[in-house]
Every structure is written in structure tokens, then in C-alpha cells.
């Protein structure tokens, strides 16, 4: 009938149809049917959260395929992985994609955390999601770490052995107090992780269960709550000026779906492309009596391993715990909502950020230089008490300098947000430098090497 087309395509009908597309679909309804144009700016989120979600899905999919051929026993794990690489059709590529996706997830979760912090997106009642995010950050690290052991080759065996020694770091303190015999906290954490004093079948079974069931399920639940909270909080963070302008909202369908689809396809395309060139390593089968030298933990824990080389307790327990405490406490200490949704909180924040970067580079590099060139307390005073070595080393000094500087910034600027930017930035830069030292500048016997 003439005119019917006009009625069925009236703006109101199209509007309702598009809203229904989102709300009636089980998978799509995690999105709000209407979104702020600001949230679609690529330079605001960089799509990092979505990339993370897709990487997680790809890891589950490739992980299930790998599991069809993998055997979690010390006798056959190595050979089953070798078969996946050399015998199973497409096995090599699937394994490469799985490994690449896991490294990409660690890097992306770190970048996502930086973007959320620097846009002040924990403000405006978003503190619960920030804390859930910190938990997700830890779970992502452990998901990757637990997968590390599964190939049961020299690399994985010694990396996890180092990881389990880091878990036992509290022993330095309990040994000094002379109470390890009655209260062995380090030993408790080590046994919790690997089931005994050394990495063996119990550790492999534990890591397998963590990697394929416990941690993915935990991450799945946390992701669901994370996304639900974003909807409950009225969408992504945005500057205060935009908050009330409801009329600016866009319909999510179909534009957001096209954007997400193109991100998804790009992530897959990149992973497939790189999987042809970057091989997941598989060294000789694990040999517990022949340590690798240097034995290194996975790269994302090398910053901690570097700190542990100064003091087990300070580097393996004290500093990581303080760091997590700091991350969790940020939204409780800083409530300056005027900075929400503004990258680096404007010019003043950028200035604070640059000074914090300089401070961090200077503090870490000077101490490492002194240590490499002239040694540290134990070299200067061979009989010095271990208490001094544990409490006065580059790990603890760095923390104290950063904390003191952020208190100074707080007083000088009168702003908790500026103090948070200072402490967060200096800590992150130090973490990156210590990790880089661990990756590129440590050789046999953990000697400093300059290639
Ligand atoms: C596997 C881990 C994670 C996944 C899958 C994930 C997913 C997402 C997604 C899809 C978004 C919305 C889009 C975007 O911001 O790109 C988001 C936002 C958010 N994420 Fe995450 N995230 C993860 C980890 C984290 C971490 C480590 C933190 C911080 C500690 C965090 C805190 C937040 C917050 C506060 C928001 C709201 C941001 C805003 O309102 O602008 N997330 N996340």
C-alpha cells in the first residue's frame, strides 16, 4: 500500500527497532541500548577493555582445542605438547595463538589499568569496578603463570620453580625472627602454590586445575560483574560537563556492533598473522637436576624477581603487597570528582606525571648503577646484620622516596588526585624499568650484563 513504507520506517519505529535489537538479545544486552558519543571516541578507551574480552574468548576457544590433546602428567605432558606442535594438524598455530593471546592479555590488562587510572575512571562511584578490576589484573597474571608450567620443559619448570621461591619470600623475615620452625608463612604459600617444596606432579595437577577451571571461571564471573557495573553506573566515565546531557546519547545498534566486530576481526587477524612467525617455545624436557642459568620467572614477574635479588622479603612480599594495597586504596583516598573523564586531569596532571617519570627513572637508575658498580651493604660491611640488608635496599628505598614525594605533592598542590598521579606514575615506571632490567640485563648467576 502506498505510504506504508513511510510509516514502518518512521524515525520512531527505527529507534524502537534498534533498541529492541539490543535488549532482546541475550548476548547483546550487556550493552546499554543508548550510549554517549563521548564513549565512542577511540582516543578515550582505545577499545582496550573490549580487546581484553575478545582475547579472553580466544584463549578459551584455543585452550579447549589444546586440551583435547594435552595430558597433565609429568611423564607425558612434554610429549603431548610436542605432538600438538608436530603431529596434530593446525596444532602448532593453535598453540602459538594461545600463547600470544596470553601475553597480549597481560600487556592489554596493564594498558587498560593505565587508561582507567589516567582518565580518573575510578571516580564517580566507580570504585567497586576499580577494585574488581584490580582482582582481574591479578587473575590475568596468574592465569598466564599457571599455563607456563604445562609444557613441562626446562623453561617452564625453572620459571615456575623461581615463581614458587618468590612465594616463599616471607622466610627471610621469619628466619631473622627465628620463628620459621613454628610459623613458616613463606613455606605455607609455597606449598599452597606447588603442593610441596619442589615442583613435581602435585604442582602440575594444581596448575592444570587452576589454569583450565578455577582461574578462567573466576575471570568469567568477575568479567560479568565488571560489565554489569558499567551499566549500573550509567555507562563509561565522562567529563562532568557531559553527564546530564542525555539528549546527546547515540543508539548502540548498529554502530557499536560494527565497531566491536571490526575490533574482534582485527584481534584475530593479528594473532593469526603473528602465530606464523612467533613460535611458542618448547625447550628440552624438564630436568629437575639441571637448572637453567639464569633461571628466570615469566617476563611479567621479572620486575619482582629483580627486587627479590635485593631482598627476598622486601621484593617478594612487602613491595608487591604495598603496591596492591595502594591500587585498591586509590578510590578511597582520592575523591576529586571534577577530574573524572579527563586524560591526566589536565595540564597540572601532565606536569605532575612528567616529574614523577623523571623521579622514577633517576631513583631506580642511580641505585641500580651504584649496586652494579660498587655493590650494596653486604659488600661494604660483610658482617652487617641481615635486618639492614632486608630493610635498606633499592626496593624499600624506592618505595620510601615515591611515598615521600607524593605526600609532598599532596601538600603543595592540595590535591589528592595529583598525589595519586605522582605515586601511581612513579610506581608504574619503576615496575617497567625493573622488569626491563630482569628481561634484558640479567645473565648467568643474575649478573648484570650490558649487551
Ligand atoms: C580481563 C580483564 C578485564 C576486562 C575483560 C575488562 C573489560 C572492560 C570493558 C569491556 C570495559 C568498557 C570499555 C573500556 O573501557 O575499554 C571496562 C571498563 C572499566 N574497567 Fe575493565 N576490564 C578488565 C580489567 C580491568 C582492570 C585491571 C581495571 C582496573 C584496575 C579495570 C577497571 C575498569 C573500570 C573502572 C572501567 C570503567 C571505565 C569507565 O567508566 O570509563 N578493568 N573494562
Description:
This protein is mainly alpha-helical and 451 residues long. It contains 19 helices and 2 strands. Strands 1-2 form a two-stranded antiparallel ribbon. It has 2 domains: 31-290, Cytochrome Bc1 Complex, Chain C (Up-down Bundle), CATH 1.20.810.10; 293-451, no CATH class. The N and C termini lie far apart (79 Å). The structure holds protoporphyrin IX containing FE.
Task: Please outline the helices and strands.
Blueprint: H1 4-8, H2 11-23, E1 34-35, H3 42-45, H4 48-67, H5 77-86, H6 91-118, H7 127-148, H8 154-167, H9 171-177, H10 185-194, H11 201-232, E2 250-251, H12 255-275, H13 302-308, H14 312-333, H15 347-374, H16 377-380, H17 386-391, H18 394-413, H19 416-440
Antiparallel strand pairs: 1-2
Helix pairs in contact: 4-6, 4-12, 5-6, 6-7, 6-12, 7-11, 7-14, 8-10, 13-14, 13-19, 14-19, 15-18, 15-19, 18-19
The structure holds protoporphyrin IX containing FE.
The site of protoporphyrin IX containing FE has 28 residues, from helix 4, helix 6, helix 7 and helix 11.
